[in-house]
Amino acid sequence: MPTRLIVRRLGFLVLVLFGLSIITFVLSHVVPSDPARLYAGPRASEDTVRQIRHQFGLDQSIPQQYWIYVTNLLHGDFGYSFTTRRPVADDLHDYLPATVELTLAALGVIVCLGVPLGVVSAVYRGTIVDQLSRAISITGVSFPAFWLALLVQLLVSKTTQLSWLPLAGRLGDTTAPPAHVTGLYTIDSILAGNPSLLWQSIVHLILPALVLGYGSLAVVTRMVRASMLEVMAQDYIRTARAKGLKKRVVVIRHALRNALLPATTVLGLQIGVLLGGAVLVESIFAWPGIGRYATLAAESLDYNAIMAVTLVAAFIYVLVNLAVDLAYMILDPRVSYE
Amino acid sequence: MSDRLQHEPELPPSHVAALAIRMDAGGLEADEAVLRRKWRHNRFVRYLVLDPLNLIGVTIVLFAIMLAIVGPIVAPYDPTIPDYNYMGTGPIGPHLFGTDQIGDDIFSRVLAGARLSMGVAAVVLAVAVTIGLTLGSIAGAAGGWLDEIIMRITDMFLAFPVIILALAIAASLGPSLSSSMIALSAVFWPWYARLMRGQVLSIKQKEYVEAAHSLGASRRHIMWRHILPNCLSPIVVEMSLDFGYAILATSSLSFIGLGAQPPSPEWGAMIVAGRDYIRDAWWISTFPGIALTLTVAGFNLLGDGLRDALDPRAVRP
């Protein structure tokens, strides 16, 4: 692993984070005509507004305001949310794990469905199976996630065989969550050694994760299909077939292993799509994550909360992609980023 | 020259021969362009019409465009004037798709929404593509510090998940359909800037550009006549895929409450309006939902088909 390259990527990361802070600063402090008025509410007196403006440093020059903003950010201070009436950092601490859990579950859905669909399409390319897999994945990217979520809820509520699937929340109303370790209920309930709680948190994840993952299925299916086709045209695949190996063995052991690597980069990019989709899916399934938090904040134009979610989502996205790139370099030494 | 042709095996041998002969006679780029266009034309037919899914895509897109043009004219009712005799009635009687809780005709609203939703997407893409192509080609052509600055700004925008950045921008501008248009243009342009820069950089290296240089063509001439026209295929593909995505994103912002406001017949806003009634009056959000999903699917299928038709390296058979 070239250390210089990693250092350079980390340097670039700092630059990107600096850029992110400028963009959210401009959006929260410069574009809105009067943020202080929004904090104070429409009925507040001019005096109160002036006081708030002073309290949040909004009466200072733009560079000074930015300096205060960044210093606060670096101290983990995202400001105060006037919808929840708490520091935004506390809200994030409570809501972020739910989103992480949902996103990971959706990623699981994508991998479990997208990879087999892609492989099947590649092996039977041009046939009805291929067309069918393309049709399935196209419907995924074409459904508005929030409408699909509504339809799924409707379907489940009207089908008696599916009535065991919960439609909202992370746990039943009367169930106490496991002791907070990671904040991911599935993992925390394993750590607490509580199988019934684990089962509950898994069933609550099923519908939101399916809806969220379905939207990204197409991209992964296509990528796996494309890289499978590329690998299947290689000489060593022909050799493996020629020496009499079964088709299934060749596809799974020889082709798939080599085809999955390029597909992992696509998975990294999908994190961004999933985090965006979470905003829509969480609010339908009453999933208490940062997506629902952002929607609630957007309704009342709570800038501190909106910008904090924006920053955190971008931060996660950037980090995940950096990690994917580095992992890719380790796994495939042929890749050079110089 | 012949080396290069061998590197592009997609061009049929007969065309390669014809190309070689004409090149000897001079005037190579123009003829190459003509031949490539002809050949692409055949691929177009093969990919877009013969493949059943692509054909479905083309049909849906043409139908949706037609609806956007004539929809509001053929709509039987005014989309925002309620019929108080039929409030929340199902798809029977005089109202084909039923009416919503205040008596607006859903069918007319879906038709009016076609123009609105697709119009918004068209404006968003027009703005994003103009900004993206301009900045991308400047970055690619100029190189050096200008390239560095433009691309670092682009990277910063690309570091945000699309919907979340759009949400932040739309919230910052205040909820309205025009804020969501500005927000979406702001999140789409960096993709085009990056794509365009890559295209310009790769085409700058081509022999025909070098040939034009050595023939004494001006930089402006080379940019407009040789580089830009050859950059466009991937842009067109991206636009077709993004058109669907822009419609979806517009509706998502409406869902969050930052985009079109009721009683606007934007499809996303209509789905949201029917959200609370979905158990008893499924038609209120289902018909706009179907219209939206079908249109987006059409553009996605078309984009996929165009990618296969325009990109010779595409793996689809």
Number of helices of chain A: 14
Task: Indicate the percent of residues in helices of chain A.
Answer: over 70%
Q: Remind me, CATH topology of the largest domain in chain A?
A: MetI-like fold
Mean pLDDT over the residues of chain A: 84
Task: Describe the protein.
The complex is a heterodimer of chains A (338) and B (317). Chain A is built from 14 helices and two strands. Chain A has helices at 3-30, 35-40, 46-55, 62-74, 88-123, 128-142, 145-158, 185-191, 195-214, 217-232, 235-242, 247-284, 290-299, 303-331; strands at 80-81, 86-87. Chain A is globular, with a radius of gyration of 24 Å. The two termini of chain A are 13 Å apart. The mean pLDDT of chain A is 84. Chain B is mainly α and 317 residues long. The radius of gyration of chain B is 24 Å and the shape is elongated. The model of chain B is unreliable at 1-9 and 16-27 (pLDDT under 50). Classes of the chains: A mainly alpha (338), B mainly alpha (317). At the A-B interface, helix 1, helix 6, helix 7, helix 10 and helix 12 of A face helix 6, helix 7, helix 10, helix 11 and helix 12 of B.
Question: Gist?
Answer:
The complex is a heterodimer of chains A (338) and B (317). With 338 residues, chain A is mainly α.
Question: Could you give the topology of this structure?
Answer:
The complex is a heterodimer of chains A (338) and B (317).
Chain A: H1 3-30, H2 35-40, H3 46-55, H4 62-74, E1 80-81, E2 86-87, H5 88-123, H6 128-142, H7 145-158, H8 185-191, H9 195-214, H10 217-232, H11 235-242, H12 247-284, H13 290-299, H14 303-331
Antiparallel strand pairs in A: 1-2
Helix pairs in contact in A: 1-4, 1-14, 5-6, 5-9, 5-10, 5-12, 6-10, 7-9, 7-12, 8-9, 9-12, 10-12, 11-12, 12-13, 12-14, 13-14
Chain B: H1 2-7, H2 13-24, H3 28-49, H4 52-74, H5 106-142, H6 144-158, H7 162-173, H8 177-204, H9 207-214, H10 219-256, H11 267-274, H12 283-310
Helix pairs in contact in B: 2-3, 3-12, 4-5, 4-12, 5-6, 5-8, 5-10, 5-12, 6-8, 7-8, 7-10, 8-10, 9-10, 10-11, 10-12, 11-12
